[in-house]
């Protein structure tokens, strides 16, 4: 397994990020083109409107199938990192930490995790700044 670090930790799923997304964009463009052409040529617009509506439904599905699993993973990461912080320090995570900050903190090793949690909460660090501050990277190979 490849050692994970800041430069290679982002993951793409080719079927979703490239194929499905490009096909959806193509469907939206073609459906709008078809509607404009039907309006311009004084043809029946109902099939073209249905085509646009179907394309919009596919866009909504695309957004939902990406956001729901990420929200579930974020909840799991928040719970895991809260438990890890408790085990290491005897205290729960600072309530000021956002979910985005906590998901970035998961890459910190146990040695630097508590200190980086304090710094992130005190300085309101961005998730990207947190990831860049990690010195001993702890890979997360489970996230999609």
TrEMBL record:
The chain crosses the membrane at residues 12-33, 45-65. InterPro entries: DUF6526 (IPR045385). The keyword Transmembrane helix applies. Keywords: Membrane, Transmembrane, Transmembrane helix. This is DUF6526 family protein. It comes from Paenibacillus roseopurpureus.
């Amino acid at each position: 397994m490849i050692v994970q670090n800041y430069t290679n930790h982002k993951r793409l799923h080719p079927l979703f990020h490239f194929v499905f997304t490009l096909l959806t964009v193509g469907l939206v463009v073609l459906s709008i083109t078809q509607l404009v052409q039907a309006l311009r040529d004084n043809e029946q617009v109902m099939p073209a409107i249905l085509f646009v509506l179907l394309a919009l439904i596919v866009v909504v599905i695309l957004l939902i199938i990406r956001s729901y699993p990420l929200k579930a993973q974020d909840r799991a990461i928040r719970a895991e990192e809260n438990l890890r912080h408790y085990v290491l320090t005897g205290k729960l995570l600072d309530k000021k930490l956002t979910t985005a900050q906590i998901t970035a903190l998961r890459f910190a090793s146990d040695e630097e995790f508590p200190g980086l949690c304090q710094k992130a909460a005190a300085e309101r660090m961005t998730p990207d700044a947190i990831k860049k501050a990690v010195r001993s990277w702890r890979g997360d190979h489970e996230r999609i």
